[in-house]
Amino acid sequence: MKKNFKRYIVFWLSQAVSQLGSQMTGFALILWAYTQSGSAMTVSLMSFFNYVPYILASIAAGGFVDRHRKKTVMLLADSAAAACSGLVFVLSALGALRMPHIYLVNAAIGFLNAFQQPASAVAMGRLVPEEKIAQASGMNSFSGNLVMVLAPVCSASLFALGGLRLILLIDLMSFAAAFLVLLFWIRIPQDHAEGVGGQPFFAGCREGFSYLKRSGLILNVIVTMALLNFFSRLTYENILSPMILARSGNDSVALGIVNGIMGFGGIAGGLLVATGRFSRDGIKMIYLSAVLSFLCGDLLMGAGQNVCAWSLAGLMASLPIPFINAGQNMILYRDVPAELQGRIFAVRNALQFSTIPGGILLGGFLADYVFEPFMRRQGALACFFSRIVGEGAGSGMAVMFLCTGLLGTAFSALFYRLSRQGHASEGKRSE
Fold this sequence. Notes:
Elements: H1 5-37, H2 40-67, H3 70-93, H4 99-127, H5 133-184, H6 203-214, H7 216-234, H8 240-247, H9 252-274, H10 282-303, H11 307-318, H12 321-335, H13 341-352, H14 356-376, H15 380-389, H16 395-430
Helix pairs in contact: 1-2, 1-4, 1-5, 2-4, 2-6, 2-13, 2-14, 3-4, 3-5, 4-13, 5-9, 5-12, 6-13, 7-14, 7-16, 9-11, 9-12, 10-11, 10-12, 10-16, 14-16
């Protein structure tokens, strides 16, 4: 199987452009929805309706992806997602766009991503030599974080200039460019399993779970990622914005600075990984990076009480994330046979993203009904925490960051030990 890293770079660039367009649309829809309803729950439900179909479809998507050409799966999934953007454009032009339409479109895109993402992950393994997997993962982290920084800025500016429809047009043009590159320029090597039909739809799911049961190391890594996603949705990707706004007197500039620094940290981490000069030990990359993120990110974010402290915390939290992703990819592409990768990647997605909807809903509930009231009551324990995080609005959410920092560090250290033991025992069995 001939691999071509230069061709993958072209594929990566085209996908990054398409991702920027789709992320701009996602942010524009948030702006549109919030201006229509004025409700934060409306925005949370948009994420909720996107993740739930993604998780449910991922359970069965792996076998389908393994049995079909990866290029065809990506082209069809991306085309259907573009059709969803086109539908939103038409409804907006007719003045008929409503929130239920957005929920349905987000659900459809989540469903399609369950097929597109495993196919894209397998394509990466087909195009990139094993010794460059970490480098390619760093490139993906770099582009993903760059998009995370650019998309809100570009979307907000264009939304003010031409509204939702202008951004949708840009999204459709970026899709067309990526579609043509993939269709005419990228050749993804096939294996003997592609085109083989006749298997039950959920067979791939069963095979994926069976493989994970036999591979203690990969299962530990996936459980770790599920916990990381749960903790991040409890705090960083859920209540960070309201906490900073509450503690800064609704200073949107402060929030923008912190988010910008976090994006910069992810970009810097992706560039560092892309150099390919770091440890080839995937286990260390995952767990030591996770410990660093929780210890220096979450704990400092909770204890910080000004923009400088929050910015430093955001940098320390986001910088290690590309190393975590690279370590996971190194283990998966090294240990999972090529003919099973679609199934394993799909089951991995279902497992490690299954904690996100619960984290989204639980984080908001704990902030509003548990931790904020707890700090307002000024009991003995609340007074103790106030010496660390300060007092006033947002202090309860700050305590939540302390909790995720301590729990995340403890779980990362525990799973590091379990993964080391599991890796050693697997090595002995293979001798």
